[in-house]
Amino acid sequence: MINFFDDFDDKVHAYNSLFTDVLSIHAPVKLTKIKTRPNPYITQEIKHLMNTRDRWRKRAIKTMDKLHWNAYRFFRQEVKREIRIAEQEYVRSELSNSKRNTNSISKVIKRCVRKKNVQNATTSEDAMAQANNDFYTSVGKTIAEKAPTLTEKLGFTALTTTTA
């Protein structure tokens, strides 16, 4: 099909368009979204420790042995501790390297602050609002029920209202 064209530029253009059409059909470009933030402070030692933890977990699930579960728990705690220490060291070094640059300092701090789960926050706020509504709507009913006994106990006379 390329030989139908006389001009070299037309041949190159035809080849490129045919080739990209074939690629888009047989090898389409797939976009992937990175779901987690990168952790620059995870070292090879921490990754090795994580692999050890995962092996102990598999072994513990397979055997259901208490010693294997204890080893898994120990390595899980070690991984958490090492990650926490590495993160603290990384943040300290980033802050010391920023040298009074407020933009870089704020970037480091934003990376450190964990984002709230929006769904859980709204759920807890809705639950608190509902609890407040329940409390305040029950106050009037409770006072109305206790008012006659309180007036008698304190020696007050109840006022009667007349409706016209």
Describe the fold and architecture:
The chain has 164 residues and is mainly α. 73% of the residues lie in helices and 0% in strands. It has five helices and no strands. It has helices spanning 8-26, 44-63, 66-98, 102-112, 118-154. The chain is extended and about 115 Å long.
Summary tags:
164 residues, mainly alpha, 5 helices, extended
Structure summarized in a few sentences:
The protein is mostly helical and 164 residues long.
Question: What's the arrangement of secondary structure elements?
Answer:
Blueprint: H1 8-26, H2 44-63, H3 66-98, H4 102-112, H5 118-154
* Major beta sheet summary: none
Average pLDDT confidence is: 82
H/E topology pattern: HHHHH
Tally of helical segments: 5
Poorly predicted parts: none
Task: Please state the structural category.
Answer: mainly alpha
Q: How many strand segments?
A: 0
The CA-CA distance between the termini, in Å, is 100 Å
Gross morphology: extended
Helix content: over 70%
The radius of gyration over CA amounts to 35 Å
Percentage of residues in DSSP E strands = under 5%
